[in-house]
Amino acid sequence: MKVLKILSICLLLSLFSCKEDAPVEKQDASSGISTFYFIRHAEKDRTDPGDADPELNQRGLGRAMHWAEILNEVELDAIYSTNFNRTSMTAAPTSVKKNIDVQYYDPRILDIDQFKKDNLNKNVLVVGHSNTTPEFVNLLLGEDRYAPIDDAENGTLFIVTIVNGVPSSTRLVFNCNCPD
């Protein structure tokens, strides 16, 4: 009888020890949460219509600092900007405040799938232009939802969140009582 009990226990133990572990799910490139904050550059200096790369005017400098305050509580992992004075200057206060180097991108040669992979599970600020910002947002969304921003509008913030590969967006407009 003792032998039978021992054999039964051994049989039970062998059944449990031979059980295969449950397969570990592999995280694919679209799982997780990524959040993108898109802004257009602040007000640019328009005194020289021939200047293709103007800096920000006084009001634009104030708005750039205002963006840094608005984004103060956001834990950013990366900041992207086109390589123009007005976009770089708009990104600068947030970059300094967050101690994050600005990475430059060219919207004409943007690989959207690679951009999403590079920024998976990150919070990212992207500074662009009246046409490139909504275009970039639309690429992340996979649909043409937003038209170019009016040239007089510098306070638009698009927030795109991608949760497990499914994007959603919000568009907000912030007024700036910045001095001229």
UniProtKB/TrEMBL annotation:
SUPFAM superfamilies in the cross-refs: Phosphoglycerate mutase-like
Signal peptide: 1-22
Keywords of this entry: Signal
Lineage: Bacteria, Pseudomonadati, Bacteroidota, Flavobacteriia, Flavobacteriales
Full protein name: Histidine phosphatase family protein
Keyword tRNA-binding included in the entry's annotation: no
Domain of life: Bacteria
Pfam families hit by this protein: His_Phos_1
